[in-house]
Amino acid sequence: MIKSFAHDTVDAVQKTKLQFVSTFVKHEGLAETMTKYVEAQSQYTKSALNTNIDALTDISLALVK
């Protein structure tokens, strides 16, 4: 559930960035490059969040024992 909330938050921010690019960047090549960059940011951020959530879960379970 935490991962779902975190991913939804990342998606909302990235959607806003993509909307900004499609609205204000009129150069096709630059818009494509910026879109790819935003998508790469999204993948990286979700991966980092998953790793941190998993680590914190493992640590908290180890402390409870």
Structure notes:
With 65 residues, this protein is mainly α. It has helices at residues 2-24, 28-64. Helix 1 packs antiparallel against helix 2 (28-64). The two termini are 23 Å apart. The mean pLDDT is 97.
Using brief descriptors, characterize the structure shown:
mainly alpha; 65 residues
Give the tally of β-strands: 0
Oligomer: single chain
Question: Could you tell me how far the N terminus lies from the C terminus, measured between alpha carbons in angstroms?
Answer: 23 Å
The percentage helix is over 70%
Largest sheet: none
Structural class: mainly alpha
Note the beta-strand portion: under 5%
Poorly predicted runs are none
- Helix and strand pattern: HH
Radius of gyration (CA) equals 16 Å
How much is the average pLDDT? Answer: 97
Enumerate how many helices there are, as a single number. 2
Question: Globular, elongated, flat, extended or rod-shaped: what is the shape?
Answer: elongated
Give a brief description.
The chain contains 2 helices and no strands. The protein has helices at 2-24, 28-64.
Secondary structure topology:
Elements: H1 2-24, H2 28-64
Helix pairs in contact: 1-2
